[in-house]
Amino acid sequence: MSDAVAALNALKEIWKNTPLNWVGSDPCGNGWEGIHCTNSRVTSITLASMGLTGQLSGDIQGLSELQTLDLSYNSGLIGSLPQSIGNLTKLSNLILVSCGFSGPIPETIGSLQQLSILSLTSNNFSGPIPPSIGNLSNLYWLDLSVNKLSGTIPVSPGLDMLVNAKHFHCGSNQFSGEIPSQLFNANMSLIHVLFDHNKLSGKIPSTLGLVKTLEILFLSNNQLTGPFPDLTGLNSLNHVDLSNNTIDKTDFPPWVETLRSLETLMMEDTGLQGQIPDAFFSLPLLIKVKFVLACHVSVLRNNKLNGTLVVNSDSSDHLQLIDLQNNYITDYMVGKRFNSELILVGNPVCEGAQGTEPYCIIQQSNSSYSTEPKTCMQVTCKSHQISSPNCRCAYPYTGLLILGAPSFNVRNSNIYTSLENYLMRSFQSYQLPVDSVSLSKNPDDSLIILSLEVFPYGVEHFDRTGISGIAFVLSNMTFHPMKPLGPLFFIADPYSYFAGIYALHQKRRAEISDMQNNPFASWCRNESNFGAPQLKGARCFSFEELKKYTNTFSDANCIGVGGYGKVYRGTLPTEQLVAIKRAKQGSTQGDLEFKSELELLSRVHHKNVVSLVGFCFEQDEQMLVYEYIANGTLKESLSGKSGIRLDWMRRLRIALGAARGLQYLHELANPPIIHRDIKSNNILLDEYLNAKVSDFGLAKSIGDPENCHITTQIKGTMGYLDPEYCMTQQLTEKSDVYGFGVLMIELITAKQPIEKGKYIVREVRLKIDKSKDLYDLHEIIDPNILGTALKGLEKFVDLAMRCVEEGAARPTMGEVVKEIENIMQIAGWNPNADSVSTSVCYEETSNHPYIEESLIMYSRTLAR
Q: pLDDT at position 516, please?
């Protein structure tokens, strides 16, 4: 027991935000929160979503009786796993979902021979999978997805020895080489094999067909070559995704029509050719042939399938969609009972007069969902509270619920209602204080990513025990996936509304904390203070100074209001106009985050990036002082709200300025910066209509330019979010490029990215006809520029569409700048001239660029 106490005290010393009742010398007797004991022995630590920060001390080896360690959703836990973790020989559950751990997985992990669940998903682990992992003979669940792991797949010893494992989840890493034929054998009991989004090459081994228990196979987005292996006899296989590989000249595999449990078949961009067998569409559970939600899909787009499409009268009653875009189908025959959606756009059958047939036109999806409140009296809730489906105001635990299987659009709520009931049953089985759950989904053609809210029972807040228990269930519910959704993955939001005595104690503890732990202590009075941020040129203002410059923060000087707080116009003694963003009391931005943002902004100096003038951290105030930008946001000008008329030349100039600002952040800032929220509302226009990139609230620095992708909680704005970032949580500069591509389309159309359920990127992609003038985009080009000379528009569209391609195909911002400069020369404007038009015509407006829109923190992988 003494070793366990010493180990826990060591963790307490190195971690911040540990539970307040971690006091005394007996964790079991004193009921330390998150610590569970059996016969006075510490056997479980469950501290999910506690806001813990720090490293995992090697002293943890003192917890020799530990069976469960769950530290999920604590992104502040960083550093490598200690080698001494291999001494926890009784450990059966090691769950570290969505933390910040990095470095290699220690070889000593192979000593944990009682381990049943190893879930390290969504961290920053790097290096190879240690071959010793093959020693884990009791392993049921292996989840290493969404990391930076590399090297080849280890076998003999390695994964092939895990004959009792049901799950290999290894997607979204950097594994390379061939998939070893030894990886699979007839003794295995695997149901999930997920190696998508890696760099695997070579053929798919034929030994995969020996795993008769297999239900889900994801090998998409690799560099695999053909032919497809024979999977005849895999009678449990229901989800297959082999899309986006380099398989060439492969006929439609005959074994597909023998898979009686098949629900989804995804083979986009695989080089598939030949005619689809008539019997394929008679598979009893097949629902769709495209990206859609949880029911039965087959996606065979962008291949070379040809001949006559035959869907006979025996086709599956479940079949909802057949999507065969961009193939060589010359005709089709369907049975009388066929009433599914059929998409044959881009096939010869849609040429000529038949081009107006329904199957030659893609119908817009408007699939959305939001949990309806029960029959109860609607109530008005306090700030930050939300009304539950039972009409009770509370502070819910929130996050994203992502379906791991290929997703399908669902046009009824049955599947969501079933999922809500499943969640409630899961929480009730653990006797957790949950009143209700709410799900919502925005209309798009994307992977199914649901917003989840879990409401407390009988109180306004969850306590730490409740949150930890809910997080444990959500991180473990994937072990028992709900059909037909497949495995589910949860990404938690921080929870800062702990109830009762805990909130009071947290406040008191903060008030009496040692000033040496406050990195902002005596900033202005002691510039050599150890904790002070390393600022370059940003001035420290006193509260009284900013109060004076804004006329006591008068309403007359308030020029914007957002979730962060209010923005005021101020005038410095030098007559310089500034914009002062003042955080409201109770803002969730912590001191260290504020410090980090200051350090980032203070070193950014470019004519196309908004400048930071200074800051104030005094009297419990957090304020940022920026240069004042006179002409508002690009969004306001495109919408007509500002009164500024933007002709084609001005739009090109704005695009170039914004691109140069973004190029500076990516290539010249030290270290480089990923903005993470590029959108028209964050491009400001000065008095000469020069574009300036603004709002760095979500920006991330890249510590190592050679390894420039980082795992982060998904944040950004709906419509501009990079689909690959949403899927993998791997943030790179190419995510900014995607947002900039959407911005370019917005400059052409003056439409918001998502309007009335339609995604403008998809609208443009479907309407482009390169054989016609202006690519036949007349219907969606902004009427304010249509009819004027639009020289270079086609090349501008080409560049925008390249920016929203797959990540590897996107240009860098440096390349974007060069191409826009070339386009401007075509249009007759010298891109290097700083001449300013004096004919800018606009009206005064009371609106201001610093007004913040609500950020959509939830990922949306938008249809392409």
A: 34
